[in-house]
Amino acid sequence: MRYIIVDLEATCWEAVRDYERMETIEIGAVELLSADALPYREFDRFVRPIVEPELSDFCRRLTTIRQRDVERADDFRTVFAEFVTWIGDTPFFLCSWGEYDLTQFRIDCKRHGFTLPASFEQHLNLKKEFGRLFGVKASGMEQALTRLGLRLEGTHHRGIDDARNIARLANLILPSWEANNRQKRDRDSGRA
Ligand code: AMP
Ligand code: MG
Asked: Residue 132 belongs to a domain with what CATH number?
């Protein structure tokens, strides 16, 4: 199975978590051609927010994304279309750390007058799977890396770097997730 690991950055404000207000400002993604493969291709684009185009100081500090990065970027409709083209036609599983990225995609698609493609709804929450696999409470990506003795590489809260780090975790999570699925399928077909 092919996996697209995605991580979005969005406009934000200190102590505010309002997904309807937030707008995507970066789509970072890597493609894995199988559960334990290294990233095969990468996608990284900034996105120009349209409702609140000015990034807050907090947002610039958190993400290191600069005002000029988003001002020079295309809007969500254009970048999302590029992303869909980049993903291509072969089946895939969309993966992210938590449910946030999928939620933000839905909100931004709606804001721009279209619906999220159905293929994106085949989504795997790696944070949840990590919790299940290691018998721990769902935790942040950095904590998950630390738990496995891995160091966060690159800049945290940059979509592409987060996606690359999540891919490293995915390589450890996906093989057992696939094995569990296989077992489940075998059990079900045995019963049928
Ligand atoms: P992340 O993938 O963890 O970098 O987070 C994705 C987006 O969630 C960021 O670009 C921000 O819009 C928002 N976010 C993350 N952490 C915080 C925080 N501590 N306070 C407010 N918003 C945040
Ligand atoms: Mg991120």
From this structure: 3.30.420.10
Nearest CA to ligand 1 atom 10: 9
Domain that holds residue 77: 2-189
**Which of 16, 58, 62 for mutating ligand 1's site (highest number of atoms within 8 Å of CB)?**
62
189: pLDDT confidence band, cut at 50, 70 and 90? confident
User: Atom 2 in ligand 1: which residue has the minimum CA distance?
Assistant: 157
Q: Record the pTM.
A: 0.96
The tally of domains found in the chain comes to 1
DSSP 8-state class, residue 33: S
